[in-house]
Design a protein that fits this description.
Beta-lactamase; alpha+beta; 10 helices; seven-stranded antiparallel beta sheet; 12 strands
């Protein structure tokens, strides 16, 4: 099978303990395969294993919000200050939902590192910690005037998730399950980290050519924080990841009036003068929209979702290791995956 050849190449190229690839097209899910070990010296990875897909979950958040917008409960022009009372007096009050989802809100990439470290080390209530982080962010000045510049922001998706939840009167997770997980055919997806009991691939990191090192999640994870979850805290099987990709492909190729289709459209000018890509809402958009993609990483995992609208095909990729030396987002890996679509 094509995917097995791709996995063999990528395993040799990266040395990652475990990898998985799934291909899909408009007729359904095709080849799905995994190779390698959940951890060095451990059990083999299986098709039923859970993987963290990182920021590939941003398109899940934007798809949910687009569906809520389509129902008339919310609008992409709604402003942060109107839906978040705590933000009414903030300099971020004029920021729109679309600006949050397209990384044009002027927000930083993440909450202050020391606030995240304090939560991880000292603990506390995840909701209270999220509210404290959000309040601190709203007190600062924008990095750029909202709407003027692309700056990738995980925390922007956190605020967008809160806005949707308050407008709809439902929890963020319930909205995602209703509007994305169930209609896409995902069966076992959830928010949080994969099991840490050895029944799923562990995270691994490699720095400066060193060996792969196991990363164990502690009692608390960043994924516990409600302000972080909308940016990409989804765990699912490779089959579920492919089912979601296939659902998005079907919308992208044949349902231009579907509310989710708006997330595939680029927002604003190219982020750089020579950039060959633009950003929609949860998607990197290339080749005049013929190619949609997004990568995700926790720092110890790597995932990628690619939709080729011109070919009517797509691919989902997962790995239980990440090496910063690959570059962002692992150009050689993505090039080999592109050949497999």
């Amino acid at each position: 099978m094509v995917v097995e050849a791709v996995l063999a190449d990528l395993a040799a190229m990266t040395g990652v303990p475990a990898l998985g690839v799934a291909r899909f097209d408009l007729s359904g899910i095709g080849d799905v395969a995994v190779t390698g070990l959940r951890r060095a010296g451990g059990a083999a990875a299986t098709l039923d294993d859970f993987w963290h897909i990182g920021s590939c979950g941003k398109s899940i958040t934007s798809a949910m919000i687009a569906s809520v917008v389509g129902a008339g409960t919310l609008h992409f022009t709604d402003r942060l200050g109107a839906l978040l009372p705590d933000g009414a007096a903030s300099r971020f009050a004029p920021v729109t939902l679309q600006e949050l989802l397209s990384h044009r809100a002027g927000l930083p990439s993440n909450p202050a590192w020391w606030r995240l470290a304090a939560y991880m080390g000292l603990g506390g209530d995840p909701l209270a910690a999220s509210e404290s982080m959000a309040a601190a962010l709203l007190r600062r000045a924008p990095d750029a005037p909202p709407g003027t510049r692309f700056h990738y922001s995980n925390i922007g998706y956190g605020f967008a998730g809160v806005m949707a939840s308050r407008a709809a009167g439902q929890s963020f997770e319930d909205l995602v399950r209703t509007h994305v997980i169930e209609p896409s055919g995902m069966k076992r997806a959830y928010y949080g980290i994969p099991p840490q009991d050895g029944s799923a691939p562990f995270e691994h990191r490699r720095l400066l050519g060193s060996k792969w090192r196991l990363v164990r999640q502690g009692a608390r994870a960043v994924d516990d924080l409600p302000i972080i979850r909308p940016s990409g805290s989804v765990t699912c099987t490779l089959g579920d990841f492919a089912a979601y990709g296939r659902w998005q492909l079907d919308i992208a190729c044949g349902q231009p009036n579907h509310p989710v289709a708006e997330t595939h459209l680029p927002v604003g000018p190219p982020p750089l003068a020579q950039a060959e890509w633009r950003y929609g809402m949860g998607w990197f958009v290339e080749e005049d929209g013929r190619r949609l993609s997004h990568s995700g990483s926790t720092g110890g995992t790597f995932a990628h979702l690619l939709l080729r609208r011109d070919l009517g095909r797509g691919l989902a990729f997962v790995a239980n290791g990440f090496d910063p030396g690959w570059g962002l987002p692992g150009a050689a890996i993505l090039q080999r995956l592109e050949q497999a679509v």
